[in-house]
Amino acid sequence: MATYFLKRIVSMVVTIILITIIAFSMMHTIPGGPFTRERPVPPEILRALEAKYNLDDPLPIQYLNYMKGLVTFDLGPSYSKVGTTVNELITSGFPSSAKIGLLATLLIVGLGVPIGVISALKQNSKLDYFVMIIATLGITVPNFVIGTAIIYFFSGKLGWLPGFGLNSPLAYIGPVIALSGYSLSFISRLTRSSMLEVLRQDYIRTARANGIKEFSVIARHAVKNGLIPVVTYIGPMIATILTGSFVVERVFAVPGLGRHFVESITNRDYTTIMGVTVFYAAFYMIMVLLVDIAYVIIDPRIKFGEDK
Amino acid sequence: MKKRLLALILVLILASSMALIGCSKTEDPTDAPPAETPSETEEESPAEEEDKDDGLSIMYWNIGADPLTIDPVLNGASDGGDVINQTFEGLVREKSGTVYPGIAESWEVSPDGLTVTFYLRESKWSDGSPLTAHDFVYSWKRGMDPATASEYAWIWEYTNVVGSAEAVNGGSLDDVGVKALDDHTLEVKLNTPTDYIVSLLSFYHFLPTKQSSVEAGPDGAWAKDPKLAISNGPFKLTSYKIGEGLSLVKNEHYWNADNVKLDGIEGKFIDETATGYQAYQSGELHFIPPISIPAAEVPRLIAEDPNFYVFPLLGTYYYNFNLDLDMWQDVRVRRALTLAIDRELITETLAAGQVPAAGFVPPGFLDADGKDFFETSGNYGIPTDNSGVEEAKKLLAEAGYPDGKGFPEFTIMYNTNENHKLVAEMIQEMFKTNLGLNTKLENQEWAVFQDTRKAGDYELSRGGWLTDFMDPMGLLSIFTTENAYNDPNYSNPKYDELLSKSALTRGKEHFDLLYEAQDILMTELPIIPVYHYSDMMMASPKLVGWDRSVLGTVDFSGAELLD
């Protein structure tokens, strides 16, 4: 098992290095630079700025310098937000994103899985149809529409919720709902279809024939197996949701990490582009690793790849 | 056994990740004690509630995007400038076009116009230390120093301060004509008499910064750090939260603190239009910038809402002809295209108070006789409505393209943006209907567009220019040969000569040269002027006494919240 983890960690490091190379070269390929402005910066000042951030070095040198910093977790200064480091951008943004993300994940799993199970058990009932119509809506309506509607009705018309920021418990309601909408619907549909498949399996029939209580059949045998595809989805989903959504954070004016993904590209803020990309990649891979571990716990047939 | 170990590991990982998030929670700015971030936690119209609660008069203002910097010397953006205007003060303060004494109590210009002497009042930094003429010298030289790499350093060229343009390009800072004669006398030597110099010095780039603060942290980091952010304006910074907002409180050491009515300002960084607008509507904000005003609402607001304000902005929206191309060599073709556009229809459609442009200099500049440059210069035979279409057709026919026949299809290029798209579609339609010309539209993401335009890789491209000082020269000079912003690549020795002469002259002579220059520009038409920009904002009726500079910077130094 130790070799398995070692292998995984080595492959993660290699992946990160590949990602940095790809991101670095792509970002330098696109036209424009960090100091491209609506009003162009005069050449002499552009030179001074580039010299200040060592952007006048050859690209391979710039890349090596960046990697040197990365090894010590120094992601460098932001080129567009002068005086702010990328580490500061991430440490100030991630907690807000993660807080909404964690609540959204709890909502998605806590509500999505039971809904899916119940729908599957009551297949083709009115309840099933109702829930699935809502779930289809949840998948198709974009989160900025949900978000804007929440702000319009609940903070504008009714005045129940604050209109922006994250300064009270109530303020979390809007962003969490807007953030969970899609995944909640998706998870309930996924759970439902996977449960339906499992319920038709022979071993469920056998379990029932053996006279095991229906609750036990569902909870012990059906749900456990039905959750495998759900767990596969949840891992990467957590990585995506916890690192923040550009749209949801913009609509609710949440000072999160999500906005940096998009704004850094618009600003050609090279260090921030690299920083958030590496952060996201690392987080994503850790979640995938956790999913693989979870498989083993849920399904005894799955083993760590020792036999390979 | 293995399984149990695994479960244990999993639990540990989960617990530690929870703990991590838990930890960062305490550092998270959003969890600051409610006493410091008042009010927006309340449910109903919090802004109003809180005022009564503790008797403090706090204004809620949406700044828009999180400013890249709020260090006056490094700043190059209007949102940063809006904050800086509240936290710092220069030699003078300009409101609605009038120059008021700031840190300088008075000033005098020598008879030859080459020396301006400022007499500074006794004033203090927000930490109580004295502010002297030496602080201005330090700060200005910091702005010129290439090592600072200030985006706005180029503006020194227009100040005509002796040696400053050379210093920006790496010359000696010791040769710059700025000197503190004593703690309260600042002498500025000019290469040539410059009428607008005093009002220009109210611009954020020229506001003083304190050396000990600046040197305490790298690259303007000090300005966002409440411990180091020592300023000299009506307000001082007490907190700055990335992506969320900043808090300002009244600066008791400000020389004119008696006339500052607000106890503090809560500035927010809400860049989503609908969110900012909604928060204003529900009373959570007192003041919102253009970014928070939905375009679709503007016509209704102009008609119905007395709290909606439109001001002219000193700039022009236009299209560049790429003069390196054969297709644009005939001036009759360029004039035909210019005449074929119904500018009134465009500004009516955009509906945000823009003024149709028949020239390049916008309204708001007074000439030596006190007349508006824009009005005196007239329209150069370019009607603002569609009455020029017949002449346009005739010109195009004379140039050999009757009804547009034989003229190559060309591409109208703009940077990706809803409004730019709308304007481009309208002129595409006008070229087609009025002249029979076929065009394609192409948009590019803005950084890409900048490169394309600079490289001259276009046929017709969008352009826009806003000026930073009160002289039409700042606009007209961009079309001189080799100017970095001369996107059409226009070159006319006569035009260049008029502009360089205008820089050395004052009064009537100066303006006559500029009138003549614009005559040439509008006869040769390297560009198609479309409209002059406007600025808009909404202010709660409870907020009075706020102002703005003609360059578009908001000013809350005299603002007051009524009960």
Account of the 3D structure:
The complex is a heterodimer of chains A (308) and B (563). Chain A has 308 residues and is an all-alpha fold. Chain A has a domain of 178 residues: MetI-like fold (Orthogonal Bundle). Helices cover 73% and strands 0% of the residues of chain A. In chain A, helix 8 runs antiparallel to helix 9. By secondary structure, chain B is of the alpha+beta class. Chain B has 2 domains: 296 residues, Periplasmic binding protein-like II (D-Maltodextrin-Binding Protein, domain 2), CATH 3.40.190.10; 224 residues, Dipeptide-binding Protein, domain 3, CATH 3.10.105. Chain B is built from 19 helices and 23 strands. In chain B, strands 13, 14, 15, 16, 17, 18 and 19 form a 7-stranded mixed sheet that branches. A 4-stranded mixed sheet of chain B has the order 1-12-11-10, with helices on one face. In chain B, helix 11 packs antiparallel against helix 14 and helix 18 packs antiparallel against helix 19. The longest helix of chain B is centred in the first third of the chain and has 26 residues. The radius of gyration of chain B is 27 Å and the shape is globular. The N terminus of chain B is likely disordered. The interface between A and B is large, with 69 and 77 residues. Chain A: It is found in: Cell membrane. Chain A: Pfam families: BPD_transp_1, BPD_transp_1_N. Chain A: Its main location: membrane. Chain A: It is a multi-pass membrane protein.
Distance between the termini of chain B: 71 Å
Report mean pLDDT of chain B, rounded to a whole number: 88
Rg of chain B, rounded, reads 27 Å
CATH topology of the domain at 94-259 and 287-298 in chain A: MetI-like fold
Percent helix of chain B, as a range, is 25-40%
Unreliable stretches of chain A: none
Largest interface: chains, residues each: A-B, 69 and 77 residues
Query: Mean pLDDT score of chain A, rounded?
Result: 88
Spell out the CATH superfamily of the largest domain in chain B: Periplasmic binding protein-like II
**In the CATH hierarchy, what is the superfamily of the domain at 94-259 and 287-298 in chain A?**
MetI-like
The biggest beta sheet of chain B reads: 7 strands, mixed
Strand content of chain B is 15-25%
Helix segment tally of chain A? 12
- Number of helices, counting only DSSP H or I runs of 4 residues or more of chain B: 19
CATH class of the domain at 94-259 and 287-298 in chain A: Mainly Alpha
Percentage of residues in DSSP E strands of chain A: under 5%
* CATH A-level architecture of the domain at 94-259 and 287-298 in chain A: Orthogonal Bundle
**Count of the domains of chain B:** 2
Keywords (chain A): Cell membrane, Membrane, Transmembrane, Transmembrane helix, Transport
Protein name (chain A): ABC transporter permease
Domain ABC transmembrane type-1 (chain A): 94-295
Pfam family, one (chain A): BPD_transp_1
